[in-house]
Design goal:
With about 675 residues, this protein is α+β, with helices and mostly antiparallel strands. The longest helix has 21 residues, at about 555-575. The two termini are about 55 Å apart.
Length: about 675
């Protein structure tokens, strides 16, 4: 039978006729209403000619291509030992999905393909050992065909405080693969692997993308075979997963997305789909985090002025960062000892939480439960709970706690459960500051998932933020268990503009934290204006990371104005459609968000550096309704924007009224912003 899944302009067609393994005939643009005869003709037509000096039948890449079928490319499925022949047990509909079952020796393989209402394809795989002896699963990835016109690859690299740096290339024949071995995504995580027509951008081009919804090691690749087939593959990177008789391995879901409207088209599918299962519990509170304000300098006297300043500027949550627990005087000790330090907080955290509550703020707390310091009571009492020996190489002076050890898992759960029971904690900032550096890390990731699931069940009202030395663990697997990501450890707005731009292709803005830091950035030493810092933080889940108790009244008034603007536009930013413009000038970024009904939009025109020309590129406001007229005005967050010019463009003083079709074309002349500045514009339909 030929199965046809359709949703939101996307088609998936699987040919499951006969005894051979099924074939994905088409994934991408909707092909229209196809009856049985048309589907049959299409599937038959997909069989290629027989090339010289090749197997003696038409070669089609099946859902599980093997050497025995003539596939000499990178294997998506490797199971050892196995019989020579792959048997197709059956394929049918599983609700709105297609489920296919295969046998490879004693291994039973199940593949499930589901297409969401937004056109997002979800591919799940599992293998069960039905044989009498152990088997080893070395790979169980999803493999999907892409057309030969998908020649260009976009993936990502990066480093601490510099995540999601894009890299583009056009591979020839062979494999372009990215494997991660961090035990988490890593700062260089190719978290969204995209192939497309050459030159694709944010607003144009046809693209196919995959994401492994998994917080551990992964493999993603494009292979262009000299036989003519092109495929993308994605899955958990396995060093060999042994299954005893009767055991099952379920691979992480692979999320696959097609768009013929560039990278923004991917977001237009992904963001609504993510919001369908990960909706925030309420408006995202303005969050003040204490790390770059006080570091380890904790006391009620030190923090009380900060609480008062936070209340004055309109913050809604205060998170107490590292330094509150037993023996934690610096970053080289005490991880694992999750009790309040009686020397710093002789009466516990109650007095501070009372001050925070009286000021009208929620209280949050930083933890790093997956880690342990060699210099800690926990490590001295239970060295067997460490994932690697105490004399193994450390990372940021810490080791990893083996969460697969039942007693270690229980220690972490009981410690956090006690804190959340004793104190009215609204949120946990859950950090993870090092790679695991072990070959078999999947068990640790699954134990973490069980831990998060158990804590959320016990404390359903507590929000959890996932931080991994910044943005080293941002994926849709952990998003099912957390409420927010810390996007990067850098609050330098110049670096943040790029990091946020690329991270936001996959993750909706309400799940990404962005804070206003000090004038001189903690991570880079670079200075930035208040206006630029405010504009950069406005478009995500906004907050503050600075000792604002030392600001003067005028500066506090600016922050108060900014939090007011954030609250005014919060529903728009956190529920709208993200849009970005493709700009020829590398010094320029343009991005924004448009309401679902397209009645308004908030946009940023950002100067990262000196413009290429004396007069910069005009302003483009994409995504608005082309048939409606809009009033466009400057959105003032209270701080002056620096320019290098004698006068603004005439329209800027009082705004302008134009149709959405005109605004999208880039007709608005731009002011000559100084490098490191951003102009904010608000468009409202008339």
């Amino acid at each position: 039978m030929i199965h046809h899944l359709r949703a939101a302009g996307v088609d998936l067609i699987i040919d499951a006729r006969g005894t051979a393994a099924p074939v994905v005939v088409h994934w991408g643009r909707a092909l229209g209403d196809l009856d049985t005869a048309a589907l049959t003709a299409l599937a038959d037509a997909s069989a290629p000619a027989i090339a010289p000096s090749s197997i003696d039948r038409p070669f089609r890449v099946s859902v599980v291509p093997l050497l025995t079928e003539g596939w000499t490319g990178r294997p998506a499925v490797e199971i050892s030992p196995h019989a020579a022949a792959l048997r197709h047990i059956g394929t049918g509909r599983d609700g709105d999905a297609v489920l296919t079952m295969l046998a490879l020796g004693g291994a039973r393989i199940e593949l499930r393909y589901a297409l969401s209402p937004e056109g997002v394809l979800l591919v799940d795989r599992r293998v069960r050992n039905d044989g009498p002896a152990d088997i080893e699963v070395r790979a169980l990835a999803a493999l999907l065909p892409v057309p030969s016109r998908a020649r260009e690859v976009l993936d990502f690299t990066g480093r601490w405080a510099g995540e999601r740096e894009p890299q583009r290339l056009r591979p020839g024949h062979g494999v372009w693969a990215r494997d991660t071995r961090h035990g988490r995504g890593g700062h260089d995580d190719p978290f969204l692997f995209t192939v497309g027509t050459p030159g694709f951008g944010f607003r144009h081009g046809e693209v196919w993308a995959t994401h492994v919804a998994w917080s551990g090691d992964r493999s993603v690749w494009l292979e262009r075979s000299d036989l003519g087939a092109s495929v993308v593959g994605a899955g958990e990177r396995l060093d060999g997963h042994v299954l005893a008789p009767g055991e099952t391995y379920a691979a992480p879901t692979v999320v696959a997305v097609w768009s013929d409207e560039g990278l923004d088209g991917l977001s237009a599918r992904l963001h609504p789909w993510v919001r369908s299962w990960a909706a925030p519990r309420g408006p995202r509170p303005v969050t003040l985090n204490t790390w770059e304000a006080v570091y380890f300098d904790h006391s009620l006297e030190r923090l009380t002025p900060l609480v008062e300043a936070a209340a004055r500027v309109g913050a809604e949550r205060l998170v107490l960062d590292d330094g509150w627990f037993h023996g934690r005087t610096d970053d080289r000790r005490a991880l694992g000892d999750w009790t309040v330090d009686e020397r710093v907080w002789p009466d516990g955290l109650g007095p501070l939480i009372s001050r925070v509550s009286e000021a009208g703020l929620q209280f949050g707390l930083w933890v790093e439960p997956e880690m342990v310091s060699a210099d800690s009571d926990l490590a001295r009492a239970h060295p067997d709970w460490m994932l690697t020996p105490a004399d193994a190489v450390s990372w940021r002076w810490q080791h990893v706690l083996d969460l697969t050890h039942p007693d270690a898992w229980r220690h972490v759960f009981d410690s956090l459960d006690a804190l959340l029971t004793q104190y009215p904690i609204a949120a946990l900032k859950w950090d993870h500051n090092r790679d695991l550096l072990v070959p078999h890390s999947g068990g640790q990731v699954r134990a973490l998932y069980r831990l998060l699931d158990a804590l959320r069940a016990a404390h359903p009202d507590v929000e959890i933020e996932s931080c991994a030395s910044g943005g080293a663990r941002i994926d849709l697997g952990i998003l099912r268990r957390v409420d927010r990501f810390w996007t990067s450890d850098t609050n330098d707005p110049l670096a943040r503009q790029r990091i946020q731009r690329w991270t936001g292709i996959l993750i909706p803005p309400e799940f990404l934290g962005s804070h206003v830091g000090d004038e001189r950035a903690h991570t880079t030493g670079r200075t930035a204006s208040m206006a630029f810092r405010l504009a950069t933080a406005l478009f995500l889940h906004a907050g503050i990371e600075s000792d604002i108790s030392r600001l003067d009244d005028a500066q506090l008034d600016v922050l108060a104005r900014w939090t007011e603007v954030y609250r005014t536009h919060r529903a728009l930013v956190h529920g709208g459609t993200t849009v970005r413009s493709d700009d020829a000038d590398p010094a320029l970024l343009q991005h924004g968000v448009v309401s679902p009904d397209r009645t308004e939009g908030l946009f940023a025109y950002v100067a990262l550096d000196r413009f290429e020309a004396a007069l910069p590129s005009p302003i483009s406001l994409p995504g608005l309704d082309p048939t409606r007229r809009y009033r466009v005005r400057v959105c003032d967050v209270g701080a002056p924007v620096r320019t290098v010019q004698d006068a603004d463009p005439a329209w800027l003083a009082n705004g302008i009224e134009l149709p959405g079709s005109v605004l999208a074309e880039g007709v608005l002349t731009a002011p000559l912003l100084a490098p490191g500045e951003a102009l904010l514009l608000h468009a409202v339909a008339l």
